[in-house]
Amino acid sequence: MLICGGGVRYSGAGEILGKLARRFGIPVGETQAGKGEISWDHPMNLGGLGVTGTSGSNRIAHQADCVIAVGTRLNDFHTGSKWNFHNPDMRLVTLNINNFDAWKMNAHPFVADAKSGLEALYNSLTEQNFTTEWNGEVEEARHEWVTENDRLYGLDSTEGLMQTRVMGLMNEELVPRDAVVVCASGSLPSDMERLWRVRVPGTYHLEYGFSCMGYEVPGALGAKLACPDREVYCLVGDGGYSMLHSELFTSIQEGVKINIVLIDNHGFQCIDNLQGSKGIPHFGCEFRYRDPETEQLSGDYVPVDFAMNARSWGARAWTVRTEEELKKAFEEARKSPVSTLIEVKTVIKSMSEGYDSWWRVGIPEVSPNEKVVQAAREQEVEIKKAKAF
Ligand SMILES: Cc1ncc(C[n+]2csc(CCOP(=O)(O)OP(=O)(O)O)c2C)c(N)n1
Ligand SMILES: [Mg+2]
After folding, report:
1. Cα three-residue angle 95-97-98, rounded to 5 degrees
2. What's the pLDDT tens digit per position in 300-313?
3. 63, 69, 74, 78 alpha-carbon torsion, rounded to 10°
4. How many angstroms separate the alpha carbon of residue 374 from the centre of ligand 1?
5. Contact residues for 321 (Cβ-Cβ < 8 A; gap 6+)
6. From the CA of 140, how far away is ligand 2's center (Å)?
7. Residue nearest to atom 23 of ligand 1 (CA)
8. Of 6, 82, 366, 371, which residue is least crowded by CB atoms under 10 Å?
9. Which ligand is nearest to the CA of 350?
10. pTM of the full predicted structure?
11. Residue 248: which residues within 8 A CB-CB, separation 6 or more?
12. What percent of the chain has pLDDT over 70?
């Protein structure tokens, strides 16, 4: 299996990686920084790998006996805290310009530029008449994932717009194929890594070194300055937007148009999910009023008008709750000469979930809450399954 990391982009190695994968039948898993360097519909592309990844990529990673990690820092998300590789005979080969990253995880390291390294590998495998031993598993994993992705794109609810449906509408209809999408924090990067279908290389921009909340709006302004001829769409949660968005004002000042798509789900919902999965009931993650009786933030949701907030800077903005309103707002936003914000009120917890992956998170071993202690015990079991390097 190949891991397509950010180094593939930085060295312009997407084409040779795609050619290598196709010629020798080697499946590819993508990192956030490397995503889109080969098209989503490349027959060997299984999409995102790891905690924010697809069932296809992760299932194949569990089985692979040789993983060639190209231009990646092998971070916790993509290796699933070193748990993702179940084959006891798995050997890791790295191709990285950076010595520090090349030597991670007991790898067999090749310190080289991704493009020239992959070209050398292509020639060498050709000389050896190499073929992989996969026998239909990759095609099956890919087909299964594409079907699941389609299902999530189509999800409907009587309660309102589902986040995964919004992703589908944006990807298939509303965001031009050559537009740059920018994202960084919350549940959106997971949905992006899993569900976003990249057709044009270089149009997918995710800050996932730190997944820093507040990167989104200034990052979008930077992307627009770098690519003035393309539309730029910033995908941000209500939490990330609230943390930092003053560059929306700068974009108005400078006459540099960006489009913000803000998903309002009343709080830090991905962290609320993480808390819940470790036995901790809702605590401080949702944007609710303090309830004098419980003395907790357990009152009603605080209603926020993010569109009005954006208008105050001079942007054009819309609040949408339905598919029709979403489509109309995108149409208006395209015509707008100034920066725009589309506030999308979504059904809470309508993001996608993890697939065949695991993530090591700090959990207290001692707690008055038995569920937390239980979660810590369960984690110990999984830690033993992770590679010990
Ligand atoms: C600067 C910073 N602080 C804290 C975090 C941890 N964190 C990651 S996502 C998140 C909540 C994001 O909320 P929102 O943007 O509304 O996204 P949602 O999960 O609701 O989709 C937090 C607190 C972070 N990534 N960056
Ligand atoms: Mg939110």
Report:
1. 105
2. 999 999 999 999 99
3. -50
4. 26
5. 160, 161, 345
6. 34
7. 268
8. 366
9. 1
10. 0.97
11. 217, 258, 260, 310, 313, 315, 339, 341
12. 100
Alpha carbon distance 187, 107 (integer Å): 31
- Residue 344: phi, psi to the nearest 5? -105, 115
Nearest alpha carbon to residue 150 among 161, 164, 138, 160: 164
Kindly state the average pLDDT of the residues 188-211.
97
Q: How confident is the model at residue 215 (pLDDT cuts 50, 70, 90)?
A: very high
Length of the chain: 389
% of the chain surpassing 90 pLDDT: 99
Q: How confident is the model at residue 389 (pLDDT cuts 50, 70, 90)?
A: confident
Question: Which one, of 274, 181, 276, 191, lies nearest residue 230 by Cα?
Answer: 181
Tokens describing residue 187: 């549940």
Residues near ion ligand 2 (CB < 5 Å) are: 237-239, 265, 269
Name 298's Cβ contacts closer than 8 Å, sequence gap at least 6. Answer: 282, 288, 290, 291
Is a pLDDT exceeding 90 seen at residue 388?
no
DSSP SS3 for 36: coil
Structure tokens at 339: 């920066």
Q: What angle do CA 125, 129, 135 make, to 5 degrees?
A: 95
Would you say residue 318 has pLDDT above 90? yes
Q: Report whether pLDDT(93) > 90.
A: yes
Distance (Å, whole) CA 83 – CA 213: 27
Contact call for residues 141 and 135 (beta carbons, < 8 A): no
Q: In this structure, what token pair is assigned to residue 389?
A: 């390097």
Please tell me the predicted confidence (pLDDT) of residue 226. Answer: 98
**Cα separations in angstroms, 268 against 131, 145, 186, 219, 247:** 46, 27, 7, 20, 22
Q: What is the DSSP letter of 281?
A: -
- Rounded CA-CA distance 361/359 in Å is 6
